[in-house]
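Rather than argue in generalities, we have chosen a single entry, letters for residues, whole numbers for local backbone shapes, without further comment.
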Amino acid sequence: MQTWINALSWLNFGFLLKGLAVTLFISVFAIVLSFILGSILGIIRYAKIRFISAIVGFIIDIVRNLPLLLIIFFTYFGLPNIGLRPGAILSAIIAMTIFESSMIAEIVRSGIQSVAVGQIEGARSTGMTFVQALWHVVLPQAYRHMIPTIIGQFASLIKDTSLATIIVVPELMQHAQVIYGQNANYIVPMFAALTLLYFIVCFTLSAIGNRLNKRLA
């Protein structure tokens, strides 16, 4: 019992919360950027633009089948070879944005395809352009269908930030490793604390998604 009290002292728990703040910082930026980029890529793939849609689809398929850890390594160690030197946190944001964008793109494409073809045909018959019909008629319906899947993907992103510890990003997992690295008896308490913190964040995100889904239903 004393081991748990020492492991989860205010000093150690405060240190964990600092790591959680970095985790949330990376997650928020990656979520916003991947949602924007993934939506654009998904729409392009759905639109079947000559050559462009095929190229975008090919790139998305490649990225989706790569391990996120490999993309993090490439971003942190590979970009300096072409003159770009992002720090560890920026490298993590870039890598996760690239990876999540490919996932979101497929979700968006599938969501748009789930909307009845007659919806866009009806919108076009009123004089709307393809882009206007997509923006005003199709996407609002598609995003309503996609909310649970997108929220689930974002929850996975938050958990995947733990992989950034491999490039010494001072996020939640890395701070936990620092603490139990000082005393091996702290390993179990630290993983219990990690479980609780990740659960709180992901459960909160899921609850927000469910509430939003009910409001838009």
